[in-house]
Design a protein that fits this description.
alpha/beta; seven-stranded parallel β-sheet; 7 helices; globular; binds hexanoyl-coenzyme A; 2,4-dienoyl-CoA reductase (NADPH) activity; oxidoreductase
């Protein structure tokens, strides 16, 4: 198999095992999918983590699995990013447990396929509330701690708003907003040593997002110049780099991790 089509290799072949030793990560949406893998990989490099989501039971199970896989500590803190008070409580639980926060991942997201005509005002608002306002609220709740640690933010966005992708008006508007929010955060907080970056994943296999958004019988890998679907590990590797000191002069960027897919995609 050509190396560019080979399954994703481990960040541990490139970065030190103890890269993030003594650091604390706060991640919304860390229970499953892309963010679970990012948290797992960050923990395998020594970070302790809090994972935040609505499903308390699922969070507890994921936290246990993450601890078992990595030997680090993981706090399950249940909160809906639509509720600022719940988020503030999750932040407090994290700081009470670990004493600080160094890294934040804004990864909580909701999505479904629907044409504009089929979207009620509440449906549009629900996705904006989770994806965009949820990111804003997570920033607000964590910023005092990130200023203190001179830490950094990573936002999980998308590439669908680079073009007009049908049935994705709500999430396109939200993710465009997330990219902008991150840029402003980078500029406002840069002088305090805080960084903010975005990863825009392409089609990632075995995720809820892909199964919700891929019509049956289609082969998304056909539209990827590098010839394979993405793996959650591809996103995790990029996240490790962006949080590492190797990226200390990188802020206000969007890193597209999609095998080149957004350059040629026509529609879903
Ligand atoms: C039209 C829909 C709909 C659909 C829900 N709604 N699904 N409208 N088509 N398929 C409408 C409802 O009718 C309602 O409007 C409003 O949206 C809120 O729906 P609820 O079910 O009451 O909301 P809630 O229970 O809070 O659920 C939120 C959700 C849900 C976003 C709708 O899907 C969810 O919880 N998702 C979380 C998991 C998830 O989506 N993961 C995938 C993320 S992937 P009315 O008017 O009836 O009140 C991802 C990747 C992005 O984000 C980039 C991909 C490339």
């Amino acid at each position: 198999m050509s190396s560019f089509r080979a399954p994703v290799s481990s960040s541990k072949e490139v970065f030190r095992d103890d890269l993030f030793k003594g650091k604390v990560l706060f991640c919304t949406g860390g229970r499953s999918g892309i963010c679970y893998r990012v948290v797992e990989t960050m923990m395998s490099h020594g970070v302790d983590a809090a994972i935040i989501g609505r499903d308390a039971k699922g969070l507890a199970e994921s936290a246990q699995a993450l601890e078992k896989a990595t030997g680090q500590t993981c706090l399950p803190a249940s909160a809906d990013v639509r509720d600022p008070k719940q988020l503030e409580k999750a932040v407090k639980e994290t700081v009470d447990k670990f004493g600080k926060i160094d890294f934040v991942i804004c990864g909580a997201a909701g999505n479904f396929l629907a044409p504009i005509q089929g979207l009620s005002s509440n449906a549009f608002k629900t996705v904006i509330d989770i994806d965009l306002l949820g990111t804003y609220r997570t920033i607000k709740a964590t910023l005092p701690y990130i200023r203190e640690s001179e830490g950094s933010y990573l936002h999980i966005s998308a590439t669908l708003h680079y073009r007009g992708l049908p049935y994705q008006a709500h999430v396109s508007a939200a993710k465009a907003g997330v990219d902008s929010l991150s840029n402003v955060l980078a500029v406002e907080e840069g002088p305090r040593g805080v960084r903010s970056n975005v990863i825009a994943p392409g089609p990632i296999g075995n995720t809820e997002g892909m199964s919700r958004l891929t019509p049956k019988g289609t082969n998304p890998e056909n539209g990827v110049p590098l010839g394979r679907m993405g793996d959650t590990g591809d996103i995790a590797n990029a996240a490790v780099f962006l949080f590492s000191p190797a990226a200390s002069w990188i802020t206000g960027t969007v890193t597209v991790v999609d095998g080149g897919e957004h350059h040629i995609r026509e529609s879903l």
